[in-house]
């Protein structure tokens, strides 16, 4: 088949598949709309007939409902007026962080040699909270995605609150509303590295700081860990778009529409245009507006109806959240261009070509500390594919993770959305509390990829209790399970990157000079003031003279408030109308996203098929070469007879490990206790080196189990080392804590083999007991 014929055939297949998926999505959207309409309407006529009213009762009830409706309307508008007043006050105060906790500034990034609008603050423990300065400090980095900082400590049940209650010193990386002139993302990375150095100097007797990065700050935390691996402890990244091209492209409901936006807008040039119109600054309100466009039902109706329907109780919660949601921060044009070109459209973070810090290009393989990935299946802004696919891009296989001595732990929530994963008190009490409590145990895990499981149980008083376990996973299996099309749906994004580079160059060549000539600080400030996200707030505030009556009217309503009760028949009709409105907006969203997805794959799927697909099949086959032929596997197997006591001990540990079953937290903690109790019989090596040696020995034990056993004497050539290892085995196996764990038949047989190979057929009583 000629090349042209093959391309035309691929184009036909793409069009047929897109049409099929679009039809399925459209059908599903209409069906769900019908289901919501039917459910909303069901029971309303029957409910009215079940409690018939006389005409005078209907008149009295109708008047009562009309009064209630009017009162709630005034309270709703007054809540919006308070939101506007809070917005203006927050702006006048300089948009301070919305942290629930008091804090003190430790370092101000604006005073650094390369100034940035970031600062390191120490969270002041609340009264009654005891902090141990010798415990591992936590450094929490909030996202700079349009909003201000504080979401990591938005309430008592939060990342900050959980770490404080566990007795850890907590530091927070905040930022100011306006960037420093000329600051870039690499400058920010350098500043955060200085912050971590300061934290380490403040806690010299503590373990390396743990870093928590939320959303956009997740990849900032990874950049920090890769640029300064010697000073960084475990890294926890939450809802972070590390592999932005990833997503759930399925034949069912359309998911994750945000990943298509860059292609449908022609690439990164629009971010550059917006920055140039802002006189070199990018208004974060545009990013927030993108988030709101994802869910028009909530943006335009649901959140306001909740206030209207619960006008006596809901405003306080609404205003608390809107204070953060309505605080818009600014980025430099250089920053947003770096983000869009390298991360969102370019998807280069994992490739080793992104430059930041004194080490030059960042290589995520340089990270030596364990990494915890926390994502949610209900997140349509950072879906699990974007949070996890980078692992397959960087390491390629489970064996390579082990060869690098890396520990990666994945934790998946079933349903919480993108904001909920940061602000939900329930998530904080369960997932974050467990992460903090087991982080030291995660450091003790052997190299590999693990799934963290949190089983909920009820204590005698009904209080929830949680049991954590770790299940070792194969990267190949996880990647296949998350990506139904084997990531073939990511290939069109390569075409997006090419088109984006062309459009970016064209804009810089032809458009930017004209835009910069026309834009100035005055027009930029005017554009920010009248941005729709700000306008809808300050326009409904005390600045508006037409609303002079609203505050007093709301006070009068509260003084004589009389609600008819939720069981009133008219309230049922009201809720039905609200549900129909919400369902209509949700149906519009589903149809919009389905059409956007279809347009994206028709345009860029065909561009990829015609111009970029040649030779990709062979490349895929090369990537799927036999694992044994991979360089790091060959290197590990070549060293099967090389090494010393540390390698022998790691190999024995791998050979004796239980296979194919979850690893309870209690067993990991027991391993930590045994390490401390028998430290004089263990090699004195840094933790990351111990993990790397363990990973290499795991590869050897997997591919050459017999030779791994037979060559043990070569690693223990010194008689003292052999006695030391056997003494350690004897003492551990005789330990009462270990004897409480029943060994498997495979473990008994393996111990007998190891003892025989090492020439200790007689052994001691403890060895003979387990060896039989």
Overview of the molecule:
This protein is of the alpha/beta class. Among the domains are: 103-248 and 333-495, Rossmann fold, CATH 3.40.50; 627-771, no CATH class. Helices cover 56% and strands 9% of the residues. The protein contains 33 helices and 13 strands. The protein has an 11-stranded mixed β-sheet, sandwiched between helices. α6 (216-227) links the parallel β5 and β6. α5 crosses α6 and α8 (269-277) runs antiparallel to α12. The longest helix is centred in the last third of the chain and has 43 residues, at 569-611. It is globular and about 95 Å long.
What CATH calls the topology of the domain at 103-248 and 333-495 is Rossmann fold
- Give the strand content: 5-15%
User: Total helix count?
Assistant: 33
Radius of gyration: 30 Å
Number of strands: 13
Write out the strand line-up for the largest beta sheet, numbering strands in chain order. 1-2-4-3-5-6-9-10-11-12-13
Largest sheet: 11 strands, mixed
Content-based structural category = alpha/beta
Helix content: 55-70%
* CATH superfamily placement of the domain at 103-248 and 333-495: Alpha/Beta hydrolase fold, catalytic domain
Mean pLDDT: 86
Distance between the termini: 65 Å
- Uncertain stretches of 5 or more adjacent residues: 760-772
Q: Write the CATH architecture name of the domain at 103-248 and 333-495.
A: 3-Layer(aba) Sandwich
- Characterize the quaternary organization of these chains: single chain
Taken from the alpha-carbon principal axes, the silhouette is globular
By CATH reckoning, the class of the domain at 103-248 and 333-495 would read Alpha Beta
Organism: Cupriavidus oxalaticus
Protein name: DUF3141 domain-containing protein
InterPro entries: AB_hydrolase_fold, DUF3141, PHA/PHB_synthase
Keywords: Plasmid
